[in-house]
Design brief:
The chain is an alpha+beta fold. The chain has 19 helices and 15 strands. The chain folds into two domains: about 70-285, no CATH class; about 330-440, Phosphohistidine domain (Glucose Oxidase, domain 1, 3-Layer(bba) Sandwich), CATH 3.50.30. The chain has an eight-stranded mixed β-sheet.
């Protein structure tokens, strides 16, 4: 069975690998009645990469479109987001106000489990918004526009799925959001102000959207799909603003557990979730050879509900055997997130190397084109120097699509292979009228 890479994430501990798979599989089936059956998570140098089988990728689009099109499902889903967003915020405040060093092992274990479980439930809501899960809804709205004979399909689509919400971020939030987690965790002290709400939200009326809906007269089903896409883009931002502080402050647990049981901060990142819980409860450590193997690589595969584990060279061999090799092309296609056509020099911001981002942002030239797996808030300072954005991942509700509209940057998302095909300094043409990216000069 062949697997396709879906996303890359930074600063991921080995303890998160199995929970990622369970969130997409077991927990998703339990919460929403559907999920994946075949996927894998690789962690190398504490960078995670998530892969899904082609069969699951096809099934996911169909199943999640059906799920979202049932209004009762969607209302319940939004209620779960609100519920677990509040609970995550409560867990964070409880953590930063506690003196972990004075807790018994049992108290620390109980607090750790509650924190991880609550965070996991919010993440189970967050991953519902991933591009491959809402792609069919996007296609249905786009096809509706084509059937209506609309000339500027991409532009009208963006107008229709606008959220009608405006976010304002505090100065503290900007400092937090404009750094990668890797950079934040290098700072000596925790900034406890980041446990406060990072944004305010206000309603912004969209006359263009209302006028367009009145003009096109969409069916009840298409109107529901439009509303779902607009709301999901909005909720995705809010959830991210809740789970990022939770990930940031989770290090407080690891620091205390490592101190209490005389384990190095570096080594504890190699522990799996059950091993961390066992370390807290009994003080039992994993051996140094296991840590060395996991530092080379860890792979978790879920197949038909069962999880297999590989580490070291065996993990690399399994990835090479199962993962679909990414193509390298001089011309690639994606979805237009914001229109325009420009040419510029590429700057690669890969989350396989987030430690390079700050230096690259500082040195990048005005007129550059940002190439990334997916933009995240830490790249916002780079947008003022950029003339376009190109991403591997994403759909119309992703971060890159949202900031593209705010910064008026031609943007193409979901190329799948941009970071593999383009190198720093390449001269690239971004045709965000046709959804084509071309490498003009290496």
């Amino acid at each position: 069975m062949e697997y396709t890479s879906m996303w890359v994430d930074e600063d991921t501990n080995c303890s998160e690998a199995e929970s990622i798979l369970k969130n997409y599989g077991e927990y998703s089936f339990k919460n929403w009645g559907q999920g994946i059956e075949n996927a894998m998570v690789s962690i190398k140098n504490y960078i995670a990469e998530f892969f899904i089988s082609q069969q699951d990728l096809t099934n996911e689009g169909e199943k999640w479109a059906s799920f979202m099109m049932q209004e009762s499902n969607f209302i319940r889903y939004l209620g779960e987001i609100e519920n677990y967003s509040k609970k995550v915020a409560e867990q964070v405040k409880k953590l930063i106000s506690a003196d972990l060093s004075k807790m018994s092992n049992r108290e620390l274990l109980e607090m750790h489990i509650n924190y991880v479980v609550t965070y996991g439930k919010l993440m189970n809501c967050y991953i519902v918004t991933q591009p491959h899960r809402i792609a069919k809804l996007e296609r249905e709205v786009i096809n509706f526009l084509k059937q209506k004979g609309v000339q500027d399909v991409n532009g009208k689509f963006v107008t229709l799925i606008s959220s009608g919400r405006k976010f304002t971020f505090s100065e503290k939030a900007k400092k937090f959001l404009e750094k990668s987690l890797t950079e934040l965790k290098k700072e000596k002290n925790f900034d406890f102000d980041l446990a406060e709400k990072l944004y305010t939200e206000e309603v912004v009326e969209s006359e263009d959207k209302e006028k367009l809906i009145k003009e096109l007269e969409p069916t009840k089903e298409i109107l529901h799909a439009i509303n779902v896409l607009g709301i999901l883009g909005n909720e995705r931002i809010k959830m991210r603003c809740n789970w990022m502080p939770a990930v940031y402050f989770y290090d407080m647990f690891l620091i205390e557990i490592a101190r209490r049981h005389n384990v190095s901060r570096k080594d504890i990142k190699a522990y799996e979730e059950n091993e961390i819980e066992n370390l807290i409860a009994t003080g039992e450590k994993i051996d140094s050879s296991t840590i060395k193997e996991r530092e080379k690589g860890l792979l978790k595969i879920i197949r038909n509900g069962k999880i297999e584990s590989y580490q070291g060279e065996q993990a690399h061999a399994e990835i090479n055997r199962r993962a679909k090799e990414k193509e390298t092309k001089k011309e690639m296609k994606g979805m237009v997130a914001h229109k325009g056509k420009v040419t510029g020099k590429a700057v690669i911001f890969s989350y396989k190397h987030p430690e390079e981002h700050a230096k690259k942002i500082k040195s990048m030239e005005t007129g550059s084109i940002i190439i990334s797996e997916m933009t995240r808030p830490n790249l916002v300072p780079a947008l003022s120097k950029a003339v376009a954005i190109v991403t591997d991942e994403g759909g119309i509700t992703c971060h890159a699509a949202i900031v593209a509209r705010e910064f008026n940057l031609p943007t193409i998302v979901g190329t799948k292979i941009a970071t593999n095909s383009i190198k720093d300094g390449d001269i690239v043409e971004v045709d965000a009228e046709q959804g084509i990216v071309r490498v003009l000069e290496k």
